[in-house]
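COURSE: Structural Biology Practicum
ASSIGNMENT: Worksheet 4, Part C
STUDENT ID: 0417
INSTRUCTIONS: Below are two proteins. For each, the amino acid sequence is given first, followed by its structure token string. Answer the questions at the end about the second protein only.

PROTEIN I
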Amino acid sequence: MGKGILLDDDNDLMVLNGSLVIGDSEMQETALIIQMSQGELKHDPILGPDLIQLKKSNVSKFDIEKRLRIHLARDGKDYGAIKESLKTNLR
């Protein structure tokens, strides 16, 4: 788990009493990566699964998971651990 500056529901910096809020940011980082398209991040223009491209295409769940695994791994994140964490938090 990584510590970082937290974002609110609108992806704006979370500020409390004039200070930025710090906490576990791994899930927020993951969400931002999933939403990205390639070329959006200056220091890593390849990062971004471009899931919007798949919206009207006929791709399998496997293809989507593969794309997510690749892009999350590029940022040092473990797809399996994140998926398990989501399952645990939904219970």
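PROTEIN II
(use this one for the questions)
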Amino acid sequence: MSDTAGSHPRPSWDSYFMEITKLVAKRSTCLRRAVGAVLVKDKRVMATGYNGVPRGLKHCDETGCLRARLNIPSGERHEICRGLHAEQNAIIQAAVYGVSIEGAVIYCTTQPCVICSKMLINAGIKTIKFEGDYPDELSVSLLEEAGVELIKF
């Protein structure tokens, strides 16, 4: 089987899904970092998510970013952010539509934080493929302990 379609090179599955995460991230409403996530099972997109406030609430460009106002570094004090992370929104989207994600792979533009990692572990995600680093050593250690494969793309 050829790796080209006509004269255009065909992306690998990993490249294809990682590119989709970048498109999904463009929907982000976060003022500090746009993140996208795509849950994939059997080479099919099951759900997507981007970071932003819960539906129906004012976006941070209207209210301002409390974390920025308080100079909180990345990776700290998640609880005072108005938004949800991309991974959380992807899991929620799957739940809302009754889509099983157990055994799925999640592609993320950024390495998941500890909160998202705990959710991904409990959701049965076995592999996380990500592009950008995130300052959260506890996340990495919990994923390792749970046997979740963490792969930097």
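ANSWER KEY EXCERPT:
Q1: The chain has a mean pLDDT of 93.
Q2: The radius of gyration is 16 Å.
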